[in-house]
Amino acid sequence: MKSGLRLEVLAFEGCPHAGAALDLARRVVDRLASGATLERVEVDTPGKAAAIGFLGSPSIRVNGVDVEGKRTAQGMIGCRIYEGGAGVPPEWRVEAAVLRALEPRGILFLCVANSARSQLAEGIARSLAPPGVKVFSAGSRPTAVRPEAIAVLAEIGIDISHHRSKPVGEIPAAEVDTLVSLCGEQECPLFLGEARRLHWGLPDPAAVVTSQSERLAAFRSARDELRRRLGALFTGVTTEGDPS
């Protein structure tokens, strides 16, 4: 693990969501960075809020950087509202911020068929990852890359037409330090290598059978969500909405 990793939960006394934010940060630290420092920082005056660029209570920072990548030159004491009106950020966003600080060098995306979600993730990650980062995808029962996955990535300028579905055993375990499973409704495949592990369960777009247009819409939804999360992981920037 990269040394010196530090998480802070910033909150004012009496914040109703401070405990949940601290529990969230602790879960992520225990799973991904057990040697990291985690502390709660009390923001008790407007002056301190302004001095540290406080974005609202609770806020979570990783090595001094807000998990949403936001900044302010002012700061004020007040509650912070996250997506969907929640009082804490989604867990994946804290995971992405921690992983970005850890600078993974080999990342593997897993699902069962290695045909849709993990292929989307591999294509997007390859387009965003810094030089030298190796990106893989695989499945426990690989089939073939879905044409819809190829099509919706082509819409945003990413070509995976040369990809193929691969079994987990084909992946060089020694080159993987981070594993992301994407199964939403199935049992994800096992990976025996030593790696940080996290689960971003997403609905399988290939399971949509009502119509081709609705299946393509499901693939676009999966693409956009993965682009949002992987943008946060590799660049600290998330892309909202339909990027096409």
Terminal residue distance? 37 Å
Which word captures the global form? elongated
Assigned CATH class of the largest domain: Alpha Beta
Global structural class: alpha/beta
CATH superfamily of the largest domain: Response regulator
Put simply, the count of helices is 6
Give me the CATH architecture of the largest domain, please: 3-Layer(aba) Sandwich
- Tally of separate domains: 2
Q: Looking across the biggest beta sheet, what order are the strands in?
A: 2-1-3-4
Q: What percentage of amino acids are in beta strands?
A: 15-25%
Helix and strand string, N-terminal first?
Answer: EHEHEEHEHEHEEH
Per DSSP E runs of 2 or more residues, the count of β-strands stands at: 8
Please bin the fraction of helical residues.
25-40%
Q: Could you name the ranges where pLDDT drops below 50 across 5 or more consecutive residues? A: none
Mean pLDDT comes to 92
Rounded to an integer in angstroms, the radius of gyration calculated over CA atoms is: 19 Å
Main beta sheet strand tally, sense and closure: 4 strands, mixed
Task: Quote the CATH topology of the largest domain.
Answer: Rossmann fold
